Amino acid sequence: LSINKIKKYSIIPNVIDDKTFEYKEKTEDKRLKILSIRPYSSKKYANDISVKTVVELSTKPYFNELSFTFYGSGALFEKTLKPIKKFHNVTIHEKFLSHKEIVEAHAEHGVMLIPTRQDAQGVSMCEAMSSGLLILTSNNTAIPEFVENSYGYLANDYLELVKAVDELYYNPDKYLKMSELGSIMIKKKCSPEIVIKKEIELINS
């Protein structure tokens, strides 16, 4: 059924638990700690783009100052991550995380590398934003409805993701401002207070 044929409809985002994923102010060094938490069951999750990003960043003079942590599992896990296992600053965990473990990972890192080929919202991305991680993601599907270039990076390919890391490395003050703004903006869109209010208004109407 085409949405164009529906005369009345409302689009309400999934709620983000901003109490669990509470904003924690980041320090400059956190911009060097990059996190990926993704399934490896489909190419739609674009983990190969994350790998290409790391490989390209390995040519940068500051590469050894960066650290990358990959969490996930799925049929494509081993094959996808094989090209970056050789790097000393890449840590790989073949596992999914509990909410508690995700919160701990958010606290230890400052940037979420989360490109995608197809997403309706990207709830894990929004949770990371709420925690204060700066988002490096893809400029497609519904992602631009939740991330804007003033408080995240929307990339069209892996080279633009590399450029984003480059910019963050040389501009720590910009990183701190974008990190805080991203948390503020996602709460304005997806906090329980906002989402539940919209749902009640829709039901009452």
Describe the structure in your own words.
The protein has 205 residues and is of the alpha/beta class. It is built from seven helices and six strands, in the order βαβαβαβαββααα. The protein has a six-stranded parallel β-sheet, with helices on both faces. Helix 2 links the parallel strand 2 and strand 3. Helix 1 packs across helix 5 and helix 4 packs across helix 6. The radius of gyration is 17 Å and the shape is globular. The two termini are 23 Å apart.
Helix content: 25-40%
Specify the structural class. alpha/beta
Say how many strands there are.
Answer: 6
How many helical elements? 7
Oligomeric grouping of the chains: single chain
Can you summarize this structure?
By secondary structure, the chain is an alpha/beta fold. It is built from seven helices and six strands. The two termini are 23 Å apart.
Which key terms come to mind for this protein?
single chain; 205 residues; alpha/beta; 7 helices; 39% helix; 15% strand; globular
Give the topology:
Elements: E1 33-39, H1 47-57, E2 67-73, H2 77-81, E3 90-94, H3 99-108, E4 111-113, H4 123-131, E5 134-138, E6 153-155, H5 158-170, H6 172-190, H7 192-204
Helix pairs in contact: 1-5, 4-6, 6-7
